[in-house]
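May I ask for a sample protein chain and its fold as tokens?
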Amino acid sequence: MNNFKLVLNLSLRNLWRQRRRNSILLVAITVAIGGVIVLNSLIRGMQVQMVDSVVENLSGHIKMHAPNYRDDPSMERGFVLDPRGVERAIEGLPVLGWAARISIPAVIMSERETRGATLIGVDPDQEHISIISRFELEGESLKSASDSRILVGRALVEELRTKLGRRIVITTLDSNGMSKEIGFRIAGVYDAESESFEKSLVFSGRNALQELLGSSKVTEVSIRLKTRYAQKEDFEQVRDSFLELDVLDWQQANPIVAFMYNTVNLVIYIWLGIVLGALVFGLVNTLITAVLERIREFGLFRAVGMRPRIIIAQVVSESVCLMLLGIVFGVTGSLLIFAWLHNGIDLSAFASGVEMMGMSSQMKPALVAHDVLVVVLVSVVLAVVASFYPARRAVRMNPLDALRH
């Protein structure tokens, strides 16, 4: 204990003795630690938005299709829904809700233009789990699953050069694979954050669409959990209950977004390694300079009988104390910046690129305690490692040579 107090007192005095140099190094450590935490929170926010966007945009955490439906989406590859079977499969899971839908490709014709899109039959009472329930609408929403009207995105309405209340004709394939033309009246025009979403998806009542297409089948069931990420055992419980269907988690259903999501984890650790690695080089150079300036001092300590391990501990403790002080300032500063940015950053100027990554135009940071803890622990470990070489150099010199330096 006495040795510890001696080492700590000597370290604090030496830090104060070289105020200018240590202040510059402290600022560098603070900026590096704070910058890493802030950037990590922005990257994590992007990652969280990817997941939320995919889950809300009709995918859910778990999705079920008939085999080969994804290769050839059509009513022919639908399946008959057993609601009681779904309820049994999700029993005991933290489920927010589930929805059965029809999703088939279609050609949409107005009086002036023709466009391709996906026609989706929904039950509005089940869609509290998706973005459909939060649409900003001009006109009316669908009243029930038997509503035979249609919701069209604003961007698609503009491309079709039509408007609310007009009739459009949709051509698609029925349950027998035969082409069928169906007339719909536009009940509402919805606004979504993504323009590509508005252009590609139109919605009608599921039961009404089944009747028009001559089938009682659905093409997908989407399950959304209360948690942001589905646990492996939750997915396996549902999959084992529907062996006759293709049961996918959100990453399997959206492989491109899943790849970008997993890449983000790698980016975070690469960024952490670059910044802290540069910080270590600066710390090593500073400590070597400090050791060279204090060779006579260390020689005197050795001459009066101070053990080498005490000198090593002194140099290491100086480095760790400086790093800990930088961590405190860096973490505090990053928390203040995080609070300032809690409403998000407007990325509407880069809307097309942001949409491609499955994000909204308002990027909100997400502070993850695990990331902060990793930064703190790695910084302390690197401070010890960076100071060990200069400390070993300080005790290797002969005390008499050091005194004559």
Remarks:
- The first strand starts at residue 62 and ends at 65.
- Residues 62-228 form one domain.
